[in-house]
Write a structure and sequence with these properties.
8 strands, mainly beta
Length: about 140
C-alpha cells in the first residue's frame, strides 16, 4: 500500500565554527509531503503492525536564525548579502514502524519515524535535517 500525506513540521540545525563566539541555530518550518510504501504484517488479532519507508519533499514556509548576538528571519537582507541562505526545498527519506488498532467504528494509528534530508540546509555548509517523529491519528 502507498500513502501520500501532508505534514507541517519544524526542523533545525546548529552550526559551530562560524567565526563568532558560540554557535548559530537555524529553525525551519516546512510543509512536508512524504510518499511512503507500507507493509502491514499479516498477524492475527485487531492490532496490525506495519513498516513504512520512502522519499519526502518539504517546502520552507518560515525560518529563524539565532545566535548569542541576534535573532533574524531567514529572508533578512543582511543574510542574503552574506550569502547565508537557507534553502527553500528539502528532500530525503523516511523510515519507520507503527500500529493500527480499533477505535470504535474508526481505526487509530500510531507510528515512529526517522527522516533524513539529503540536501544541505545552507549552501556550502554540512547541515542536513534529520528528525525523529512520533505521529498519532485516526483514519476514517
Amino acid at each position: 500500500m502507498t500513502a501520500i500525506q501532508l505534514h507541517f513540521v519544524q526542523k533545525g540545525s546548529r552550526i559551530d565554527d562560524v567565526g563568532v563566539d558560540g554557535n548559530i541555530g537555524v529553525r525551519v518550518n516546512y510543509v512536508e509531503a512524504p510518499l511512503l510504501l507500507r507493509y502491514t504484517a499479516p498477524v492475527p488479532g485487531p492490532v496490525k503492525p506495519y513498516l513504512i519507508g520512502g522519499p519526502f519533499a518539504a517546502y520552507r514556509t518560515s525560518c529563524r536564525i539565532t545566535s548569542e548576538i541576534a535573532s533574524l528571519n531567514c529572508d533578512a537582507d543582511i543574510l542574503r548579502d552574506n550569502e547565508f541562505r537557507v534553502r527553500d526545498l528539502d528532500y530525503g527519506a523516511a523510515v519507520g514502524a507503527g500500529i493500527d488498532f480499533p477505535l470504535g467504528p474508526l481505526t487509530g494509528t500510531a507510528s515512529l519515524r526517522f527522516t533524513r534530508g539529503f540536501r544541505d540546509l545552507i549552501a556550502d555548509e554540512r547541515t542536513r535535517n534529520q528528525t525523529i517523529q512520533l505521529l498519532a491519528g485516526v483514519r476514517f
